[in-house]
Amino acid sequence: MRGDLNESTAHPALIFWIIAGWVGFLLLPWYGVEDGFLSFKWLVDGYPFDEDFAPAAFLIGQGEKLWLAPLLLPLAAPFLVVRRKKSDPLYAIVLILAGAVGFGWLIAQGFGIGIRGYTFDWLTALFGDLDDRQYGMGYGALIVASAFLFLFTQGIAARGAINGDVFVVSAIGGVIVIVTTFVFFPIAKMLLAAFITEEGGYSAAVFASKFFDDRLWGLGCFAGGRCGAAWNSLFLAILVGVLTTVLGLVFALVVTRSGFRYKRALRALTVLPIITPPFVIGLALILLFGLSGSVTQFFAELFGIQPTRWLYGMPGVLIAQTLAFTPIAFLVLIGVVEGVSPSMEEAAQTLRANRWQTFRTVSLPLMRPGLANAFLLGFIESMADFGNPLVLGGNFDVLSTEIFFAIVGAQYDQGRAAVLAMVLLFFTLSAFYAQRMWLGKKSYTTVSGKGDAGVHPLMPNGLAVPVFIAAGVWGMFTIIVYGMILYGSVVELWGVNNSLTFKHYITAFSVRIEESGIRWTGAAWDSFWTTIYIAAAAAPLTAIVGLITAYLLTRQTFAGKNAFEFGTMLSFAIPGTVIGVSYILAFNVPPIEITGTGIILIISFIFRNMPVGVRAGIASMSQLDKSLDESSLTLGANSWQTFRRVILPLLRPAILAALVYSFVRAMTAISAVIFLVSAEYDMATSYIIGRVENNDYGLAIAYSTTLIVVMLAAVGLLQILVGRTKIGRRTQFGAGE
Amino acid sequence: MNEKLITGKAAPVRFEGVTKRFGRDVVAVDNINLSVETGKLVTLLGPSGCGKTTTLRMIAGLEMATEGRILIGDRDVTTLPATDRDVSMVFQSYALFPHMSVLENVSYGLTFSGFSKTETRERAVAGLELVGLKGFDNRLPSELSGGQQQRVAVARALVLEPQVLLFDEPLSNLDAKLRRQVREDIRAIQKDLGLTVVYVTHDQEEALAVSDEIVVMRNAAIAQIGSPRELYDAPVDQFVADFIGEANIVPCMIDSVENDTATISIEGYRHVLPARGLLVGPAKLAVRPSRLVIGAENGFSARIAKATYVGVRMEYTLEASFGTMFGVQDDVDAPLEIGSDVTVGFTHKGPVLLPEA
User: Fold this and answer.
1) Cα dihedral A714/A719/A722/A725 (nearest 10)
2) Residues in chain A with pLDDT < 50?
């Protein structure tokens, strides 16, 4: 009876998308509703005849926006084939044509006609002045576009792509379209902006003058002056990469190759960078070494030296970033160091190498790709870091902050921001490319499926002593820094009035209970709730997109899979500031007009954090044997049913991890966010930066501490939940026994 | 009464000129023609990498043929994906879903086949009863032994009443004793329900024991198709002779052929056997170790090079002028001495001429 399905003429997915397309066209407001995506005031506010809220069909009916009328044809075309068989060649052709034409027309009219009539001069030249305009797309356009996309993918599937699997083809199509829209399109738009002259024309000379600017590439620092931002960023990133790799290796060696007793505590270190907003370290350093910092004051009194501002600039940023990113290197290297097979080291020892020789000739060479990987990660993180240079940079210009000042400062120069972003993107993408192409194929991980009974040898003594000293000093420093954060939040006014107070917490988080209920009177509540709300909305979407992508990458083979993988992982290497700038440039005008809304924040989080979801998904899916999918398929489930009923339930820990991780990352993000926040949607991190700029450190630190506690709770909750799913096993036995 | 719930809806399988290529130039299956009759258990047998598993997966729809046609029943299924084929498969690793109970596993396929809830349950319970796992409904796969998991996998495939049931080395994860029992169970169920079964294995003894017909594969092509007895007694070439049981390949001379009966000679020892279309001239002879008579009256001479005691019999390595041979003798109480010269002959039936050398 299964066999008959294929020959039948019932196509539920097809019918669903045809109806969806018509609903989008006939019933939903075509253009974006100004009150926000989730506001439904339009329902009682003149719908369906008011121009602002009318569905496309009503607009056309009233003789407006007539360029939407051609969409009716591709919307109607699929009705021709509803009764046909899937194997009928006409079925595929009609769907492909309808989808492609409809989607293409939708895009073309969206870009062709904007707020001021035709967007391109040649269109005006061709058709004369258009006496009409249109705004950004809304529900209606979104649904119709999706309908066209999925009609198209069903047509492709019917032609036999991926064994005619509608779910897989649609998933690939969907991921390609959203990644193109929200990663490649904004980046391309930003690159174009670098060539735009003040008059709005395009010119390579403009680009050249901005690109060869002395503020970007100047080498004055060798002559006692200032260097360009590009060189500053590069030097800083290399230094941070080296330092974090060395320190990461030191900690990894302590955990795996020594008799150190508190290894679990050290491993807990890896949680820190996840839950710490990026600029918090910078704040703590100011409390310690700033002009009125405790250490500065102490030395000033002791030796009678004048306190200096040495911290602000390269040294401060370097220390802050090294503190912030060492745990990331540690996380990478602990896997690498453990991955070196103990039997190889034991083999070396039985071949008469002593411990130092073993380490130098066997262990270290085997770790080399891992070390390079850690270095590149530190490099990318440092390049992309925005919070610490903003707080500590002083006169030390780096690319990420320069981009920010080009956009928000008095200069307001989009072109310059775009050029800076291009340079920054070039650096991070090169590192990303090197990491993937050069290291991807060269893995020395020696862990195989077979049990390896060996034990890692201890470090040679000559190495152990410096390693322990370095680890001890840096560990203490980290603890002091985090202690400062906690302590700083309860001090009245740092360096001036050191009495303890909860004043800052009260200012930020006071609550008044009135008859009408709780009133959130604290200054921070607004941004706090916005942050929670945005992060909570972004997390499940991130997890869904990430897991579907991971499924496609691990379980399906299709043409162009490598490019697909590269494209989806790419946003990992795009610094947040670049995303922020490109989103402003791309989504401030129709057809997608979402700046100033909460949606743009959610979308930026989805695509910033998607690689994390993809990686989590890939890691756990590659542990599920492929025969599970295959047996489900031979039992008559289709690939969607297999995904939902077999793979998803087995991935529950990965899903939870992706959820919590993307939630937490959305709460701590600053670099992209600072461009995208609006008065209505202010996020916690940008609020805190605002306080810092007003020298209101107490409140900033109190707020940061609260965030850390909230995120710690989220991560802790995750540990408990994941732990439970692992041991969750039914205990009741058959009723017949 | 429950047993009646599950019946066979068996159908034949036909391969017409099927080729499977991976990438540009890796040919996994090269232009094979194959026909599996309704209600028969056919084994694909061959060394690893011979294309037998790929062939099986093409029947399941997990791999798509690059060229040729695949038919199940009267239907051309060449381009149908696994989901839409009426075929179930028992995997080497069993592939039981670890998050579902035994009953949920067995019901899994039924829920996609349009059965009502009660019917699904009844059929699943009947399926479990059929494989002797009544009352294990609520266990998780991790709470079962290997043999029990195997039977759940069989039940899960059976309850769908597939046109063809596929087994991919189903016994390789079981210990030796359990293997014999499970293979007998599989064969009994197959015969009871009249199922069409395609079975992949690399164990020739297993293949001989369960099959109606064996397809021996080598290098992506079919080497020989035949019943177990045909393959054992009349292999077409050296590869098949050696792969199905052991065989000594002995060079000989065909002296005369009459009515398809040949008279051969080896160092003056004469033997009469079917000519299998061969003509007078040099030829090769395949002789099973058990068909060598060590110490016969008539024969050729050989020397005992090695003697091994394996409990039920003696195994000897014999050195003759044309090479070494491997023979066995049931007499373990009076073993022959190493280095002694013996006369070796053939039993009356047994040696076969190999058509192509």
Assistant:
1) -110
2) 1-7, 443, 445-451, 725-737
> Domain end: B198, B215, B238, which one?
B238
A519-727 and A243-447+455-488 share a CATH fold: yes
Residue of chain A with shortest Cα separation from B167: A631
Same domain, yes or no, for B65 and B151?
A: yes
Question: Is the peptide bond between A48 and the residue preceding it cis, with omega within 30 degrees of 0?
Answer: yes
Q: Determine contact: B257 vs chain A, CB below 8 A.
A: no
B157 and B29 in one domain? yes
* Closest by Cα among A198, A142, A169 to A29: A142
Contacts of A254 (CB under 8 A, 6+ apart): A260, A263, A266, A467, A468, A471
Query: Span B147-173, mean pLDDT?
Result: 90
| DSSP 8-state code for residue A558 | -
Residue B219 phi, psi (nearest 5): 45, 50
- Single out the residue in B218, B238, B258 at which a domain terminates: B238
**Structural domain boundaries enclosing B44:** 2-238
Cα–Cα distance list, A415 to A189, A197, A210, B274 (Å): 11, 8, 8, 92
CATH number where B88 lies: 3.40.50.300
3-state SS class at A241: helix
Q: Taking an 8 Å Cβ-Cβ cutoff, which residues of chain A contact chain B?
A: 1-3, 5-6, 160, 163-165, 625, 627-628, 630-639, 641, 645-646, 649-650, 729-730, 732-737
Mark whether B142 and B230 lie in a shared domain: yes
Nearest to B86 among A2, A627, A631 (CB): A2
> If you count residue pairs, one on A and one on B, with CB atoms under 8 Å apart, how many are there?
107
pLDDT per residue as tens digits for the range B20-52: 998 878 899 999 999 999 999 999 999 888 999
Asked if A2 and B98 come within 8 Å (Cβ–Cβ), the reply is no
- Architecture per CATH, domain A243-447+455-488, reads as Orthogonal Bundle (1.10)
Q: Does B79 touch chain A (CB under 8 A)?
A: yes
Q: Does B299 touch chain A (CB under 8 A)?
A: no
Nearest in space to A605 (alpha carbons), one of A554, A547, A526, A533: A533
pTM for the full predicted model: 0.82
CA torsion through residues A681, A686, A688, A689, sign = negative
Please give the DSSP secondary-structure letter assigned to residue A65: -
Question: Searching chain A, which residue's CA lies closest to the CA of residue B113?
Answer: A2
Contact A646 B97 (CB under 8 A): yes
Instruction: Give domain limits for chain A.
Output: 4-159, 243-447+455-488, 519-727
Contact residues for A4 (Cβ-Cβ < 8 A; gap 6+): none
Q: Exposed, middle or buried by CB within 10 Å (0-12, 13-18, 19+), for A314?
A: buried
- Fold of the A519-727 domain: MetI-like fold (1.10.3720)
CA distances from A83 to A3, A11, A80, A88, A408 (A): 18, 9, 7, 10, 57
B253 plus B232 within the same structural domain: no
Q: Are residues B81 and B114 in the same domain?
A: yes
ipTM above 0.90, yes or no: no
Are residues B351 and B271 in contact, defined by beta-carbon separation less than 8 angstroms? yes
Domain count, chain B: 2
- Of A341, A428, A327, nearest to A384 by C-alpha is A428
Summarize pLDDT for A15-74 with one digit per residue, the tens: 999 999 999 998 888 887 766 666 677 777 777 777 777 888 888 888 888 888 889 999
